[in-house]
Amino acid sequence: MIDQSPDAGRASPATPRTPDTLYDRDVRTRLYRQDPQTIRAVATLQDDSFGPGGFATVHDMMLAVEIDEPSMRIETVKAEMVGHPHRTCPSTLRDMDQLIGLRIGSGYFRELRERFGGNRGCNHLHTMAQHIGTVVSLSFAARVVENDTEAQALPHERWMLRVVQNEPRVIDSCAIWHQDGELATRMLAADT
Question: Domain range holding 185?
Answer without folding.
Answer: 141-190
